[in-house]
Amino acid sequence: MKDYIEKAMRTCSPGFHKELVGTNALHGAIGVATEAGELLDAVKKALFYGKPVDETNILEECGDILWYMAAIADHYGFTFEQAMERNIAKLKKRYPEKFTEEFAEHRDLTSERKALEGDEAFRRDQKAQMDAIKRGKSNADEPSY
C-alpha cells in the first residue's frame, strides 16, 4: 500500500510533552528498553544459536538496566525498596498462594492497583522521608554520594 505512511501519520500525536516526564525519566525509560534488548539478545544467542551463556554479559546488562531504573526512581522520588514492596503487594493480590494459570488469566486489576497505590499513611511517611533526604537530613547509615 503506497500511501500507508501518509494514512498512518494522520494518527500520530502532534504533541511531545517532555515536561510531563522529565529528561531523566525519559532517558531511563529509553535506556531500560535498550538494555532489555541487549539482555534478550544474549539469551537469544544461547537459545537459537547454541552459544554458551555469557554470564558476564548478562550481569553487565542487568547492571545497566538497574542504572536506568535508578534514574527513573530518582526522578519520581521513590526507592527501589518501595518499588519492590509494592510489586510484592501486587503479586500477593494476583497470586494469593502461588502462581496458577487461572489467576494469571483472571486478574483483579482494581485490587492490584490498590496494592500498588499503597496505604495513604505509608505514602505520606515515604514523602516526608524523601523530603528530609533532599534537604540533606538523610539517615546516618545511608551513604552520601
Low-confidence stretches: 138-145
Number of strands: 0
As for the number of domains, it is: 2
Helix content: over 70%
**Biggest sheet overview:** none
In what range is the share of β-strand residues? under 5%
Shape call:
extended
Radius of gyration: 20 Å
Report how far the terminal alpha carbons are from each other: 56 Å
Q: Give the overall pLDDT as a whole number.
A: 88
H-E order: HHHHHHHH
Q: Can you count the helices?
A: 8
Class inferred from helices and paired strands: mainly alpha
Describe, in short, the structure shown.
By secondary structure, this protein is mainly alpha-helical.
Task: Write up this protein.
The chain is mainly alpha-helical and 145 residues long. It has 8 helices and no strands. The chain has 2 domains: 60 residues; 68 residues, no CATH class. The C terminus is likely disordered.
Keywords, separated by commas or semicolons:
71% helix, 8 helices, mainly alpha, disordered C terminus, 145 residues, 2 domains
Which helices and strands appear, and what pairs or packs with what?
Blueprint: H1 4-9, H2 18-21, H3 23-49, H4 55-76, H5 80-94, H6 101-105, H7 109-117, H8 120-134
